[in-house]
Every structure is written in C-alpha cells, then in structure tokens.
C-alpha cells in the first residue's frame, strides 16, 4: 500500500506542475553547448517569454506536452521511491535511538537508495517524457528533436531504433539525478518534519506540517539536483546513430565536461527558475498528498479494526 500511495500522490501533483517541467526542458536544451555570450537570440529567456513562446508555437496544449508520459514517470518513480522509503522508515532503519546524531545520515542514505531503485523503474518513462516535451512545431534552438506522434509511438520508435538500451538512454545520469534529489528531499523533509512536530500547532495539522516541511525540502532538492537534471535532459534528448549510440555525448562524464567547457557553470543551472518553481510546489504537493493519503489509510485501518 505504501507504494500505491506514493504513486497516487505524485500523479496528483504532476497535473499542476507539468507546464513548468515543459519550460524547464525547453530552457535546458536551448543553446546546447553554445557559450552564453555567443547565443544571440533566445526564445526561452525567462518564465514569461518561455510561456509566450510555447503558446505561440504549440498553443495552450503545448504547456501540457508529454503529460501521459509524465504521469507514468511520476507514478513509477515515486511509487517506488516513497514506497521504499516508507517501508524502511516503518522498519525503523531511518532513525537511530542509540545515536540520534546519525538519524540525518541514515535519512540521506536510505533516501539515496530509494532514488537508485526508482531511477531504474522510471528511466524509460523519463526518456519518453523528455523527448515529447522537447518537440515543437515552431522554430527551435535545440540541436535535435525526436518526432513522435504520441506516448505509445515514442515507446515503439525508441525500441525499434535502439531496443531496450534506447529506453534506458542517460540511465547513469538519471540515477545520479534521483539519488541526489531523493537524498536531499527525503532527508530535509524528515528532519524538518521532526523539528516542526515539537510544536503544538503542527501536531494538530498533518497538512500544515507537510506543507512547511516540503517547502524546505523543495529548496534543497532544486539547488543540489539541477546540474544532474541538465545532464540527464541533454543525454536523453540527443540524436543517436543507426546503432543507437549518442552522437553528442558518450557518457555522463563527457556530458558534464562538454557543458562546462562550452557553457561554464551557468550551463549546469539552465532552466533553474522553472525547475525550482516546479520542484518546490511539486515536492510540496507530492509530499502533502502523500501525508494526506497515509492519514486516510491509517484512519481507515483504525475504523476497520474497531468493527
């Protein structure tokens, strides 16, 4: 049940945050491996201009591009991630009663492990989601666009061209992204939640505690995860040869190095604003829905036991 609750909460959250994910993807791919001073025109500069560009080229529906794949990605990722973390938390492995100072480290460890498992389960959906979000009918500055007609078409096209390997393109970067992001999110959420629950006002409201804790978690997640997120997007969306090998980046280290050489540190934080605006409320909504669903399930369990 922990896995189902985690997946359901993330699907509710992504309905609200997918437009920001589209903007983030477009910004991360614009001016790929081009130095900032050499990028003369930008179609996705800032949130306002990015929204206008998407609407002009793809209509209002463009803001929800890749939504079916995003829903599948979020369910597969967070059902495993939150379910795994909740399971080990129920077993008491995320806390140390003998050495309380080790509790934050245990939260980071198990948060990272949950991220590793979820990256494996969700990688194919992330590949499809990114490639669909990158496609636009207007002029575009990205190096490559994969022309899929829909989610199912994307899975078929990728598998036909590159096999299972194609569905796991950028897997090492995806693992790094989710391990860092999950460790930061779950650890900061757990620590903040434990601190807030010392106060009566938070003890009386599950939603208020979750909102406050997830706001802090979203900030740390955004700052730490952004470089890995950019690299994952770039590796996932790059053009491939007939044999399915990437034509621009050979591996995660090559991608990190090429971005730094061409775009500097700035390249690692492209799309940071829409990413933060997405991650913070998504984390807030996701973890709040998660806490709410868990509360309902626990209430249902208590009522069933009374019967």
Structural features:
mainly alpha, globular, Mitochondrial carrier fold
Strand content: under 5%
The count of helical stretches stands at 12
CATH H-level homologous superfamily name: Mitochondrial carrier domain
According to CATH, the fold-level topology is Mitochondrial carrier fold
Helix content range of the residues, please? over 70%
* Class computed from helices, strands and strand pairing: mainly alpha
CATH level 1 name: Mainly Alpha
Query: Could you give the distance between the termini?
Result: 21 Å
Order of helices and strands: HHHHHHHHHHHH
Spatial shape: globular
Organism: Anopheles maculatus
Main location: mitochondrion
Subcellular location: Mitochondrion inner membrane
Solcar repeats: 1-91, 102-195, 205-296
Protein described:
By secondary structure, the protein is an all-alpha fold. The chain has a single domain, classed as Alpha/alpha barrel (Mitochondrial carrier fold). α4 packs across α7 and α7 runs antiparallel to α9. The two termini are 21 Å apart. Belongs to the mitochondrial carrier (TC 2.A.29) family. It is found in: Mitochondrion inner membrane.
């Amino acid at each position: 049940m922990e896995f189902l609750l985690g997946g359901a909460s993330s699907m509710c959250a992504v309905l609200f945050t997918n437009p920001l994910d589209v903007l983030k993807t477009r910004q991360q791919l614009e001016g790929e491996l081009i130095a900032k001073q050499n990028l003369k025109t930008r179609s996705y500069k800032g949130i306002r201009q990015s929204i206008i560009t998407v609407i002009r080229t793809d209509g209002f529906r463009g803001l929800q591009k890749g939504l079916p794949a995003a829903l599948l990605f979020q369910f597969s990722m967070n059902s495993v991630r939150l379910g795994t973390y909740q399971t080990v938390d129920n077993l008491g492995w995320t806390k140390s009663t003998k050495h309380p100072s080790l509790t934050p480290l245990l939260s980071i460890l198990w948060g990272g492990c949950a991220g590793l498992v979820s990256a494996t389960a969700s990688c194919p959906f992330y590949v499809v989601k990114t490639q669909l979000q990158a496609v636009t009918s207007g002029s575009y500055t990205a190096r490559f666009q994969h022309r899929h007609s829909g989610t199912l078409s994307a899975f078929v096209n990728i598998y036909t061209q590159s096999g299972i390997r194609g569905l796991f393109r950028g897997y090492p970067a995806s693992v790094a992204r989710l391990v860092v992001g999950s460790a930061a999110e779950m650890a900061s959420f757990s620590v903040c939640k434990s601190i807030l629950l010392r106060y009566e006002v938070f003890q009386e409201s599950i939603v208020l505690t979750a909102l406050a804790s997830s706001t802090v978690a979203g900030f740390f997640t955004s700052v730490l995860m952004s470089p890995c997120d950019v690299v994952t997007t770039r590796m996932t969306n790059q053009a491939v040869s007939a044999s399915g090998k990437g034509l621009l980046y050979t591996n995660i280290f090559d991608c990190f190095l090429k971005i730094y050489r061409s775009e500097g540190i700035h390249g690692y934080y492209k799309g940071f604003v829409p990413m933060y605006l997405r991650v913070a409320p998504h984390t807030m909504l996701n973890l709040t829905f998660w806490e709410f669903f868990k509360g309902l399930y626990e209430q249902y369990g208590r009522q069933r036991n009374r019967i």
